[in-house]
Amino acid sequence: MRSTADIRRANAFDVVRALHGTADASRREIAQATGLSNATITNICNLLLTAGVVTESRREKAATGRPTTRLTLNPTHGRFLGVDIAETYVHVETLNLALDCLSSTDLEIDYHRRRPRQIVERVTEAIQREAEANRSLPLLGVGVSAPGQVDQVGGTSVFAPNWGWRNVPLLDLLTKALDAPMRLDNPLKSLVLAQLWTQPLRATQDFVVVNLGTGVGLGAAIDGHVLRGRTNSAGEWGHTVIVADGRQCRCGSRGCIEAYVGASGIMQTLREVAPNSPVLHADDQTLTMRALAQALERGDPAALATAERTAHFLGIGLASVINMLNPEVVVLAGWVTQLLGERLLDMARPHIARHALAVSMMAASFEIEHPRNNSVSVGAAATALEAYLEAVMATDESASAKDPSNTPAPSNALSG
Ligand SMILES: [Zn+2]
To answer: N or C: which end of the chain has fewer CB within 10 A?
Structure first.
């Protein structure tokens, strides 16, 4: 059951989301956009004004009565860092309260230097470069996305199969280098948060983001809440068995969806269809997927057969998602989607329709994500923004409850 604090937090998120993507808004317009009562809007806006999150931008002269104050997100209040740690790179973005990207840093991660200390060193270097880049803005929080299963509460990388990591206290190691509030999540949850915070309708929809890349998985939001499960592992759809005793998967099991629709699975299919295809670039997934996309454009038979087989597995997998979660929207995301997503989705549609239940299928629409910038970084920054807003809202709870155990106001914002 949701507590009063949960509801207040959700209301504050709705108010800030209403101010995203608009230059400014009156309290009345915010009330219309969120469906919240005037009293609630007044209370939340007062707190956000006191904290400096929003400012009064201008007053409109009304024909009768008092002039209307318009509110805007304060562009100089502070910044967040969104950190996308992937298997081969780290990408750090600086974002403002509106989650607009101000600058970014990219560093490669050497696959042979993947011990926790080595990766933390690399990630710290990227974070510190970004922290230096916009020193005039106070740093309000850092959101970190790390691959594999993560324990959000403990800040631990529980299992990162590609690096062979188990129970690495990632946030503890990172906060040694930068004293700022930090939150940890994984890319699937970050993709969902990016949708929730940057797409106007998403907070009211049940939706799924399917990530197609080297790894395959999904994130889901039900009623505006990220589906996490008991151990934050919900969404490991890529490791659902689709072929009994099928291909070996890197998770240790056999026949997983990822082994057929992940980048290396698609490469294996191409190898089976045409072992000598010039489209194949041994050990280079990116080059192969790019070449495959071009070969599909020119109607290459081996490329078409590979895409057809991949789409068959993808369609069956997506039908299971439709049957299990009954989503309104399925968003395909990830770097393989950017290259092959349109074609794969077209080819997968008949398979989805064949295997999904009719009523659920009728309710679902499919979209390809066209990100403006790195969605994982945007989602990671959104977790930091949420943490910051929670702290702002908690100041009022502590004041009204007069309870010394309540969380104090966020006082550890860094001035660069
Ligand atoms: Zn697997």
So the answer is: N
Mean pLDDT, the chain, as a whole number?
A: 91
For 111-128, give the DSSP string.
TT--SHHHHHHHHHHHHH
Percent of the chain with pLDDT over 90: 75
- CA 260 / ligand 1 centre spacing (Å): 10
- Domain 4-74: which CATH class? mainly alpha
**CA 210 / ligand 1 centre spacing (Å):** 16
Rounded to the nearest angstrom, the distance between the alpha carbon of 84 and the centre of ligand 1 is 22
Q: Comparing 79-185+374-380 with 200-368, is the CATH topology the same?
A: yes
Q: Which long-range contacts (CB under 8 A, 24 or more apart) does 387-390 make?
A: 387/141, 387/143, 387/181, 387/183, 388/80, 388/140, 388/141, 388/181, 389/9, 389/12, 389/13, 389/16, 389/53, 390/9
Task: Provide the pLDDT for residue 2.
Answer: 73
Domain spans in the chain, listed from the N-terminal domain onward: 4-74, 79-185+374-380, 200-368
Question: What tokens does 141 get?
Answer: 């929080």
pTM listed for this prediction: 0.90
Pairing of strands 207-212, 216-222: antiparallel
**Distance between Cα 254 and ligand 1 center (Å):** 7
